[in-house]
Design a protein that fits this description.
heterodimer; A: about 290 residues; alpha/beta; Rossmann fold; 2 domains; seven-stranded mixed β-sheet; 10 helices; globular; B: about 375 residues; alpha+beta; D-amino Acid Aminotransferase, Chain A, domain 1; six-stranded antiparallel β-sheet; about 25% strand; elongated
Amino acid sequence: MSILLDAATRVIVQGITGREGTFHTEQMLEVGTKVVGGTSPGKGGTTHLGLPVFNTVAEAVRATDANASGIFVPPPFAPDAIMEAAANGLELIVCITEGIPIQDMIQVKDFLRGYPKARLLGANCPGLITPGVAKIGIIPQRITSPGHVGLVSRSGTLTYEVGSALTAAGMGQSTIVGIGGDPVLGLTFRDVVEMFEQDPQTTHLVVIGEIGGSDEERAAELLARGSRLKTVAFISGRTAPEGKRMGHAGAIISGNRGTAKSKEEAFKAAGVAVAETTDDIVGLLRSA
Amino acid sequence: MKLLEYQAKELLASLGIQIPHGRVAHTPDEAAAACAELGPVAIKAQVPVGGRGKAGGIKLAKTPDEARAAAQQIIGMDIKGFKVPLVYCETALEIEREIYLGFTVDRDARANILMLSSQGGMEIEQVAEESPGSIARLYPNPWRGPLDFELTQLVYDAGLGELARPISSLIKKLYRAIPDLDAVTAEINPLVITKKGEVVAGDAKLEIDENAAWRHKDLEQRFGAVIEGDPFEVEAKKRGLTYVSLDGEIGIVGNGAGLCMSTLDLVQRAGGKAANFCDIGGGAKAEVVENALAVILMNPRVKGVLINVFGGITRGDEVAKGIVIARDRLQMKLPLVVRLSGTREEEGRAILRQHGIEPGVSAWEAAQKIVGLTRAPAVR
């Protein structure tokens, strides 16, 4: 078992013929992901990497029965690509694209309320991988191995770093999920932690957060209610300089939340071990 | 992009919002001329950061001579790391009352939030903390914006019912900054009701989403060059790098924001302080590493550099080769510690050692090494 993604997930790649789309589709196929096709407006009817290419997601879904998508299109087109995927019934939408304007994402989030089955991961995220089984996105499979640790993170490279340390220590992963670092995004820490809680294969959990927002605090609140998972949290950005503030609006709505201290305290209050450095995570997980 | 007050006001005026009469002055003489034309003025430092009033960046001038003297003091002043490039000379308003109006992105709600309070002014954050109920809030639908009845309710919620019409109409204009300008924060504090009953923007803060810069190339051209930030940050931006200046002595290069931040944390834990950091993003191509190192080394405070790279898709041996090439091209003599991890890390470390670069096995060990090396006197 795993969360969100398994061997049966039928994946299309939006933007499959682009440079990034091509490279990462190859990588996804190498892991064993069931990629069933892709979209690229104007190139419908052709094949790429041996897969059928469609003009639209609707055509792709009709022909392939896909239920998930990986999005590799540039920022001006990514918001529409996400909405197109949701409107056509895809249940898992992974948007790798970095640099989407915030106001576009706010509109997308509002649009998605009309499609409660659609779960968006990202944007600006590395995607997810169920080691040895399937991946959507760009997490390098070489750093992963199958096992029982759930890993959820905001940062790409820290995910690779910790995944790699877990693998080297013989602690395989059930699923690794990169939720992305943008201020307005799809699945949150809390959503993903809840899924790991329900997944029988997952026995341990690593949460890698960073300063800003209060998604980490909300996940900690959930864990504080009682969890069967042995969990370690790490927060980066303890010593990062405060942003040079101009107005008061941000402070009015966020108060003291969002600091590394607030996040670490929230996890400690939930009985979760907090790692000082990423090097400490494996040890803490062993003794958790 | 955080705009200066006069730039924000120009944009607000273009949305139909009333602003006080004002003139930009680059020199004390221009400030004197502005005062001669406008009468008594406030001379206001233009910096993209809050707290300028408390830092002495706002002075009142009744005569051209006073305006000249005030501008003399303020232009070139340093406010929270920003050198004041120019002042804005603005006629004083006859204030009847001060209101707070602003919107920003509420990350937790994944939505824009509009806020209105009858208690405008500098103490608004205290008001928010002590009586949060006195700030009325509205989450407008992001596709259609706020509707009339929603705004009417907002104004009544703020206890400003007698001003329902003029304020609703003003909020509608301000809200245009979202669809038209990709503003992520806009604030008018105070929004002044004058003794004559006019509604005027006393101050203005406006931040435009950098991710949407491609939709607003005109704004960058019109305003971008005026904001004199840190010269190294300006240079890094020109080269397309994510770079932040800090005040220590160790330069940091990392790939990914999370990794950069955790590297800063480790350097501080080891007893050092970062001078700056540069995020080279995923991968680590030689030319990108070289570009990043070049900017890092422009800062004369840098006594040594720590590179922390995780090679995921990019292989460790390729990253190592890139670092060696970059160092040689830049003829870098300062201590350099590289923590390289990920795919083919052993091969990568061997290449580094062959070229006299100290590899660190863990990020923590590398942080301790660079802190140790930079304590010794450096030869540039």
